[in-house]
Write a structure and sequence with these properties.
about 270 residues, alpha/beta, Nucleotidyltransferase, domain 5, 2 domains, 5-stranded mixed sheet, 5 strands, about 45% helix, globular
Length: about 270
Amino acid sequence: MNQIYRWMGTTKQNIHQRLNRELKRAEEKEQLKVVLQQVREDHPDMGCKVLYRKIKPQTLGRDKFFEFYRSYGFKVTPQKCFRRTTDSTGVIRFPNLVTGRELTGVNQVWVSDITYYETNSKFYYLTFIMDQYSRRIIGYSASRTLRTEDTTIPALKMALTRIKGDEPVKPIIHSDGGGQYYSKEFLSLTTGSLRNSMCETVYENPHAERINGIIKNKYLKGYNPINYDSLNKKLDKAVYMYNHEKPHSSIHHFTPVEYETRLNKELVTLN
């Protein structure tokens, strides 16, 4: 192999570095599709140049971002083939394990999503992981970038503290097709601990979409964070208030924390 690398005028290290860069680019593009769709719905007239300055993609320069922006278009939903394989771009897909599943307790299905939050003309990113049964937010993060290490990794590490590792059935982690949910770093944490699941359309992750809107519109906008540090503090408060103070009709009008406490005490009948 070393002779082949020399013949190509490169090294094994250079080849792997190039492949890793391409994988990171593919991951970011997949998540950009989700974020750009959200921005387009909220800001129908926002132009490509403004979006580039606000989003500040990590792996795409301005021209590559413009090319990606034009080729995707926002109006056409890309056809996705959901199978656990790696295609030529390194994109991994997992089957949807959630639709039609009847839940009987916590730590069976966790739903997750990434959304953007704009303050003082800057974009930041919020990642949430919620237990679908109790509606409790069990992991979250605020970040300046869409990189995996800033978004899904800290949120997932927080959520993983809920499980001891001896559960008879591993929790399902359900998400959209964003690159942060199939990156090597993310999969290194889910392998052996969780079962990965992905939706084929945005309509197959409604609980995660709903929590995005609640935290952004019902809490953060009222708290009015003015910068990144402020956003982190206000996000902590928002999640606490949601988990401890907000009753939900879907869980017998208890707060998520109350509901889980009562489940542990067997005061709520499991249906």
